[in-house]
Design brief:
Blueprint (H helix, E strand, L loop, with lengths): L2 H24 L4 H6 L3 H12 L6 H15 L5 H22 L2 H25 L11 H24 L3
Length: about 160
């Protein structure tokens, strides 16, 4: 397989994982499920930024954030800011984060998820729409808990399809 074909196949695998994350985000759930839903697209973005920092970065984070803004009906750019910031911090420390144990990575994921939620809350506040309830921050916790299994799954997918 030529390098161009291999790169194209790898790109389609990356896009497919983002589509699955988008579908998991759009899946209807009862209220308690909505409150506890992990930030799937953020997790997939962090994984690919860690695995392939030369291919997935800030622009990808911004683009996925805009897509999430569109499908969730939030202010355009609201999640894009948080996802781009998240991508920046992962790119900045990806070499260090790669050597962390899974539980240490999960703590970093918690902080990054809180950053995205804080950016969203801050922009909501600027628009006069901020509503602070205790369960607003729960997705950060479930995102942290979902990191280890999702990491292992995406690593299997990356190795199976030879994404480089």
């Amino acid at each position: 397989m030529r390098v161009d074909e291999h790169r194209r196949q790898g790109s389609s695998v990356i896009v497919a994982t983002f589509i699955v994350a988008l579908l998991l985000t759009l899946m209807p759930l009862p209220f308690w499920g909505e409150v506890l839903r992990p930030q799937w697209s953020l997790l997939v973005l962090i994984y690919w930024t860690l695995a392939l920092p030369e291919r997935v970065g800030i622009l990808t984070g911004w683009s996925i954030g805009l897509l999430m803004d569109t499908v969730q009906g939030t202010l355009l750019g609201q999640l894009a800011v948080g996802y781009a910031l998240c991508s920046y911090f992962v790119l900045y420390g990806y070499q260090r984060m790669r050597i962390y144990r899974r539980w240490q990575q999960s703590v970093v994921i918690l902080l990054l998820s809180l950053l995205v939620l804080l950016a969203r809350f801050w922009i909501d506040g600027l628009m006069g729409e901020a509503i602070l309830v205790w369960y607003y921050w729960l997705p950060a916790l479930t995102t942290m808990l979902a990191w280890a299994p999702l990491y292992l799954l995406l690593r299997l997918v990356r190795r199976y399809y030879g994404v480089r």
